[in-house]
Each structure stands twice: as C-alpha cells, then as structure tokens.
Amino acid sequence: MNWGVLDRYAKSLIKEAGQHIKHSFSTEIVVSSKSSANDLVTNIDREIEQFFIKRIHRDFPNHRIMGEEGFGDDIQSLDGVIWFLDPIDGTMNFVHQKRNFAISLGIYIDGIGMLGYVYDVMADDLYSAMKDEGAYLNDIRLPKLMDTTIEEAIVGVNASWVAPNRYVDHDPIIDLVNKCRGTRSYGSAALELIHVATGRVDVYMSMRLSPWDVAGGMIIANEVGAISSTMSGQQPGMLQSETFMVANASVHTQLLEEFIVLKK
Ligand code: IPD
Ligand code: CA
Ligand code: CA
Q1: Domain boundary pick from 101, 117, 141
Q2: pTM for the full predicted model
C-alpha cells in the first residue's frame, strides 16, 4: 500500500465533501431522529456518507468502509484496509449552529491506524496524521504535548458526568471538576479529540462512542503523545460502541486510578 498516495486521495475527497456540506446550507436540510429524539441525522449526513462510499468502492474495491449511517460494509473483523467514516460528527451542532462539526475519517490496516483526518469544515481546518510521521493542522506540524497536572488541566466533560448516571460513579468526577482548572464541552467527539491533540484541552471523556467517532482523531492524538483508551484502560476495540477517553499522557493514568470508577 502506498500510504502517501492514499493520504493525498483521502484529503482531496474530504475537501470535496466539505464543499458539498457548505453548499447544503443553501438547500433544504431535512432533520430526523434515530435512536432517541436527541440523536439527529439529516439528509446531508446520508448524502455525504454515500459520496465517500461510492468513490472509495470505485477506486479501492478491496477496501471496506464502516460508516455511521450504515451505507458501508458489514464489518465483523479488522482484517485488511478499513475506512472508518463519520460524515458529520456533531450533527446537533450542524443543525443548530451551522458550525462546530467535522468530517471524521480513519484508515486502518489489520486494526492498526495509519491515516487519520478530522476536518473542521466551516473553519477550513484539516487536521491529519500518518502513523509515525507526525500530525498536522493544514500544512503546519503540531508539536508534541507538554506535560501537565490535573490542577492545570482543562477537562472535556459535559454536565451529565456530575449527575447520577449508569456508567460511572459521579462523586469522583465532582472531585475532578473541582480540582481541575476548568471544564469544556463542544458536542463533537472528533473535534474534542483534536482539542486534546492541540493542547487546547487536556482530557476528553465520553461514556459511549463508536469507532467512526474516534478512528481519525485517535491517530492524530497518538502522533503528539496523547493516550486514547476505554475507561477501563484498554485499547478501543474498533468494532463496537465503548466508553472512551483521550488525555495528555502525563495525566492519563492518574485519571483512571483516581477519578474514574466504573459501575458494574
Ligand atoms: C456525536 C458527537 C457527540 C458525542 C456523541 C456522538 P454525531 O456524534 O460526537 O459529541 O457526545 O456521543 O454520537 O451523532 O453528531 O455524529
Ligand atoms: Ca459521531
Ligand atoms: Ca455523525
């Protein structure tokens, strides 16, 4: 596999998809809900996923695609080349704010992340990384993250973490919120991974994310030294939804040991 060629191909596909998304604002966007009233999808999410899949299947017939909207392949194993695609991550932001959403794409071979992309469409910021080759914002290389402490950290959690919930004990999270410098929540897992990779935020945690939410951002975060895992400290399995966290390496273990108490 020539990863340089694939990288250029993926970047141009992403930029083209971004243009389609921008143009969609002058058309009618049809919003519907999926698993719950707050789980939104639009005709644009579906069209963009289909755009990617048609092209990838045409140009790389041996590659498989796992896409959020279900137009891709039925992926039961990580063998071969798999594209993990979220055509619009942050659909609620897309619908309500027309910003703060991203195209998220990760290309893996035999379960190993090789190429990662998160495209902040409205800012025209393309974050990308190739395994062992560093991470970039457009053409500018992202520096490795500097060490931090919980006291100096900005923690990406939303309000549901400090209320009783079925995933984690909320009392240690209240301690974390009180101890850290501040909290933020942006509504797009892919962009939140990028905020950790750029040092704008030091930790991001989610109770339930899918492979397409994290596949691209994890490769980028890894290249600057951040650590991604489930909240039990395992490598994300990439075949199903799981808990997820990404953090500056200097606080990742402390977070797991002191502040995250998973419910059985
Ligand atoms: C969602 C966003 C959101 C996260 C949800 C995801 P979607 O993706 O990333 O920030 O909290 O868990 O499902 O539905 O907008 O693609
Ligand atoms: Ca998503
Ligand atoms: Ca989505």
Answers
A1: 141
A2: 0.97
pLDDT of 264 strictly over 90: no
Residue 109 predicted with pLDDT over 90: yes
Q: Which atom of ligand 1 is nearest to the CA of 190?
A: 9
Site of tokens 């502040």: 259
Chain centroid to CA 196: how far? 11
| CATH number of residue 243's parent domain | 3.40.190.80
Range of the domain at 235: 150-258
Residue 264 within any structural domain of the chain:
no
Q: Tell the residue number behind the tokens 């921008």, with chain if given.
A: 22
- Measured from the Cβ of residue 123, the count of other Cβ atoms closer than 10 Å reads 11
222 lines ligand 1 (CB under 6 A): no
Is residue 121 domain-shared with residue 198, that is, in the same domain? no
Last residue of a domain, one of 141, 160, 191: 141
Is residue 263 included in any domain, yes or no?
A: no
Residue that is written with structure tokens 């962009």 in the block? 191
Domain count, the chain: 2
Same domain, 44 and 168: no
- Give the mutation target among 86, 103, 118, 213 for probing the ligand 1 site: most ligand atoms within 8 A of CB: 213
Q: How far is the CA of 69 from the centre of ligand 1 (A)?
A: 13
pLDDT tens-digit readout, 14-29: 999 999 999 999 999 9
How many Cα atoms within 13 Å fall on the side-chain side of residue 118? 30
User: Tokens 């457009």 appear where?
Assistant: 138
Query: Is 66's C-beta closer than 6 angstroms to any atom of ligand 1?
Result: no
